[in-house]
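Before relying on records like the one below, remember that each one covers exactly one chain. Contacts with other chains, cofactors or solvent are not represented anywhere in the record.
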Amino acid sequence: MEMETTNQPVQAENPMKEWLVNYVGQKLQPQDGGVTIEMIVEAMAQEFPEFLLEVAKENWIRGYQQALYDIDNNELTKNEQETAESS
């Protein structure tokens, strides 16, 4: 499955995507008829902002956890290199 970018039309390849694409298409009525990720986010922000807030919180937490992991991993690698150099 190929991921769409924000400005490419979304392919309605399952029942939920079909419903969402149709809903956003009816709501925003794009001139070319194509619904993009950007349009879906815009509609969700208007209609269901608490959902997007939870997604943003989860992304922030995961990003923060990844940063902490990267720092720990970097420190471990640095310590291993210093030990190898001093041997």
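The radius of gyration is 21 Å.
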